[in-house]
Amino acid sequence: MKVVIVGGGAGGISTASNIRKLDENIEITVITRDNKVAYSPCAIPYVLSGDIESFDDIVMRTPEDYKKKNIEIIIESEVTAVDSKNKTVTYEKDGNETVLNYDKLVLSTGGNPFIPPMEGVDLDGVFRIRNIDDGIKVNEAIKNAKSAIVTGAGLIGIEIAFALKKRGLNVILSEMLPQIVPRSLDKDMSDILVKYLEMEGIDVVLGKPITKLIGEGKVEKACFGDDDYYDADLVIMATGVRPELKLAEMAGCEIGRWAILVTDRMETSVKDIYAVGDCVESKDLILGSNTISQLGTTAVRQSKTLARTICDKKSRFNPVLNSMVSKVGKLEFGAVGYTTSFAQQNRIRPVVQKVEALTRARYYPNAKPMDIKVICDGNGKIIGCQIIAEERVAERIDTMTLAITEGLTCFDLSNMEFAYAPPVSMVTDPLILAVEEVSKKFN
Amino acid sequence: MKVVIVGGGAGGISTASNIRKLDENIEITVITRDNKVAYSPCAIPYVLSGDIESFDDIVMRTPEDYKKKNIEIIIESEVTAVDSKNKTVTYEKDGNETVLNYDKLVLSTGGNPFIPPMEGVDLDGVFRIRNIDDGIKVNEAIKNAKSAIVTGAGLIGIEIAFALKKRGLNVILSEMLPQIVPRSLDKDMSDILVKYLEMEGIDVVLGKPITKLIGEGKVEKACFGDDDYYDADLVIMATGVRPELKLAEMAGCEIGRWAILVTDRMETSVKDIYAVGDCVESKDLILGSNTISQLGTTAVRQSKTLARTICDKKSRFNPVLNSMVSKVGKLEFGAVGYTTSFAQQNRIRPVVQKVEALTRARYYPNAKPMDIKVICDGNGKIIGCQIIAEERVAERIDTMTLAITEGLTCFDLSNMEFAYAPPVSMVTDPLILAVEEVSKKFN
């Protein structure tokens, strides 16, 4: 059997590795535009910040490493056509076209940065961050820059703004919505983060879109709203990623509201064509509707299911909660499930409680504040959680992910056993405090 | 209504506070032997180590604070009799006897350190650590001591051995069983901890009980086995705690294999007498049999149920998994559920996997090794987990506690979503690596 994989990101390359773990004989070919594979794009901001020494560190494996596993990687190549009748793909490399047959085709085409249509986005000094080469270019540009504007205050935007500040630039983080991390955090929680970023010297501009970028060949200023001008030697567009669907459309795969539709075995609507990663839709665990989960972990998990599907083994990709975590400077923040406003938009009447707790026993040195918000539906079922603290956030998000996945109510979780020792937790865990408090609202 | 509570530890004092939160009028009296209430005994080793500055820091509230909440605390008093027919308790304070009527009686009598019968245990310099006064005495003794032996390598024993080492003493940690933390860790996991303790300069002596203590008035040497003598200016008996049952027996409460039998509403077999904390038996979540859960968190959680029971509100104390965590020096270790050998003793054929992972992305600075062991039953149902690392152990234990509580298999958990960011986790969480590996044993 011959499997051709389009895309060398987390979804594509993990699918290749996972198939190989299950089967030694399947022919596997990965075609990628990139010149590198098996690196962690989530790590790019941390290289820019200097926390990770070099871009080389975040490249886990080379195409040669895959060669040894009998996986062929064709780099710097663009797949230009898919013919699902004759089961071929056509790719272009160095100006030459090659046609490959496939038995199974995997579309792991990822997404393209969404750049809002705007005057000046093509000026020098305006960057997007999607792959390691983008990172390398920004890293060079930093050396001659004094000021930067990062627009789009999702995770990547925040992480990059923080990195640029750490490198000594004057940094504005701008977001057209009235809050940062709008997909994952409620405004009051995101405000804690804003306060921290401002304390670190980053200017946060909310609710005002950039309307144009101005400069002579190279960007010099950005205009916010009608006539607010700010200097910028460097502009980073962190305005989200749109699924890349061209090949899927060409192949006749059914497309949903945002991306390729797949079964829970990662099959598209076209026989022998599969898809994973940023270019597919997932099921939302709470409402069962379709959603989009553009996370590295989602791609990796989907690739495990897909490898089993291709090797004729049982596996199912479960609905998602889009659990996330990040760390900027000292502050770790994470979230899972619905925000208050997302719940409301979906006709759930959320019952919400925010509590302030500590990361260790009150009397233990270096106990840090922990802000936790829990969101329940009208029956007390937990549907969301957001946490900000200097430590121990990620794993609590995981505990809440499991609680939501299992359909637990705040009453159920209130009774749960938690491990305790003064240096690592409170005698009543912050999560328990939060669910106990929200439970009271149901009395 | 008049509630009398015997015992001012975590169970007793929390019951008092929780009743008061639910009802302003109930008369509440707590009688305790101690001269302090509302302190954290789990914190004593960390005061001895110097991590917490003074014993005053770990006392959260005084009897006067409780007075303000209309809770009467009678300190330094011994309850000498319970009459469950006439509903009275008799206590002795300063040589005077007083008889109190009760409507509801709470026995939170805790436990007494178990001191094995042995020559020399009454010598000066031999201590047990149960309350804050014990801590203060040891703290004084440390100042004139050069060498110490801590016997009993459960959590408290290890924490105290570490504290004494940090204070500059030569320390031997001795355990008559062939491993440390035998209740919670498998031998191979406990060996990681032994290696760390030895690296920190503690001598660990396993499988050899202390047979006698020798000295002229004051302890000078301990004899291990037949004729192995070690110097010791200080000996700490950390050989466990036996439930204090005298009053329960006097009142006619039914006693189980180890402790007072209670319902899931914390009722004893005698009407209007309730019990919580180290002196009661709990249900084991996995087998449903009785067990004993002498943890501060268990006492606190039981007290919440008991307060609701007394105030005629619904609540149920759930079966336990005895999830635990501790931290000595840099190393955090935790466990939940059954060890391999405990499973075997209970006729479960355990399927076990140990993995080594990292606490952060491989390329991220300060990624630390994390050792995880997962224990499943013959059907893949998770029944235990043990984790050792320099960070992020406690919350992963909590995630596993929830997984076991919900009856998840290793296959279920393999599919779970985990939050990821390079500074705080691996793209595939260590827990997922562990359950994926153990899952393979079922193929």
Structure, described:
The structure is a homodimer of 443-residue chains. With 443 residues, chain A is α/β, with parallel strands linked by helices. Chain A has 3 domains: 2-42 and 54-111 and 242-310, 3-Layer(bba) Sandwich (FAD/NAD(P)-binding domain), CATH 3.50.50.60; 115-239, FAD/NAD(P)-binding domain (3-Layer(bba) Sandwich), CATH 3.50.50; 325-440, FAD/NAD(P)-binding domain (3-Layer(bba) Sandwich). Helix content of chain A is 26%, strand content 29%. Chain A contains 12 helices and 25 strands. In chain A, the strands form 7 sheets. Chain A has a 5-stranded parallel β-sheet with strand order 3-2-1-7-18. In chain A, helix 1 (10-22) runs parallel beside helix 8. Chain A is globular and about 65 Å long. The model of chain A has no long low-confidence stretch (mean pLDDT 96).
- Coarse structural class of chain A: alpha/beta
CATH topology of the largest domain in chain A: FAD/NAD(P)-binding domain
Beta strands of chain A, count: 25
Gyration radius from CA atoms of chain A, angstroms: 23 Å
Strand content of chain A: 25-35%
Q: Which residue ranges of chain A are poorly predicted, with pLDDT under 50 across at least 5 consecutive positions? A: none
> What gap, in angstroms, lies between the N and C termini of chain A?
61 Å
Q: Which CATH-level-2 architecture of the largest domain in chain A?
A: 3-Layer(bba) Sandwich
Portion of residues within helices of chain A: 25-40%
The largest sheet of chain A has its strands arranged as: 3-2-1-7-18
The residue-averaged pLDDT of chain A reads: 96
CATH class term of the largest domain in chain A: Alpha Beta
User: What would you call the quaternary organization?
Assistant: homodimer
Provide the domain count of chain A: 3
The largest sheet of chain A, given as strand count, sense and whether it forms a barrel, is: 5 strands, parallel
**Mass-distribution shape of chain A:** globular
Biggest interface reads: A-B, 63 and 63 residues
The CATH H-level superfamily of the largest domain in chain A is FAD/NAD(P)-binding domain
Helical segment tally of chain A?
12
